Amino acid sequence: MNKVSLAIRELHRSENDLATELLRTADRHKVDHEIFHVARDIAGWSQQHVRELARVGHDYDLDLDDEPQGVHEVLAEVRRKGSEMLGRRHAPSVLLLRDLRTVHRMAAGVSLDWEILAQTAQALSDRELLALSERCHPQTLRQLRWANAKLKEIAAQTVVTD
Predict the structure, then answer these.
(1) Would you call 129 exposed, middle or buried from its count of C-beta atoms within 10 A (0-12, 13-18, 19+)?
(2) How far is CA 124 from the centre of its chain?
(3) 8-state DSSP, 69
(4) Distances in whole angstroms, Cα of residue 69 to Cα of each of 16, 49, 50, 77, 102
(5) Which residues of 37-53 are buried (b: 16+ CB within 10 A; e: fewer)?
(6) Contact of 23 with 40, CB cutoff 8 Å
(7) Which helix (H) or strand (E) holds 161?
(8) What is the pLDDT along the chain (162 residues), one digit of tens a residue?
(9) Domain 3-160, CATH 1.20.120 — does that match?
(10) Whole-angstrom distance, CA of residue 79 vs CA of residue 88
(11) Where are the domains of the chain?
């Protein structure tokens, strides 16, 4: 496997992980309708990126799963984590803060991976790979900005209040 294949494989995994975390966050915070709906919507972007990376991966002899991690797997994990969190008795705002921090960090990593892939595509003059990066990376940046905005919105109140 060459280095380009490794970069595509890593980005495929990272996008899948980000989609899963966004779905987990949505399901953990169903009572906050904005979090629930926006997180689910932007998870769909990462799920689409997983499909597109699997498709372009064939050009680099990769056999990547073109289906993102299943929702049933995510829900099972949410139930398990939910039980753990309830046992700790954290305030919902503290849990949301933690979840948004996780999404932010993951989206930042995915953004870097898209940048690496775009630079690689330019060096190789691979127009299809570059077009994929140019199409998907802006959505990842929007995911990152959403998590950052929500963190700014809730951070002070969450940390200062009892």
Answers:
(1) buried
(2) 27
(3) P
(4) 7, 12, 9, 12, 18
(5) ebbeebbebbbbbbeeb
(6) yes
(7) none
(8) 689 999 999 999 999 999 999 999 999 999 999 999 999 999 999 999 999 999 999 999 999 998 887 655 555 565 556 545 544 445 788 999 999 999 999 999 999 999 999 999 999 999 999 999 999 999 999 999 999 999 999 998 888 886
(9) no
(10) 15
(11) 3-160
Q: Which residue has the tokens 């979840």?
A: 99
Give me the count of residues in the chain. 162
CA dist 19 and 49 (Å) reads 10
CB of 130 closer than 8 Å to CB of 118: yes
Q: What letter represents residue 120's amino acid? A: T
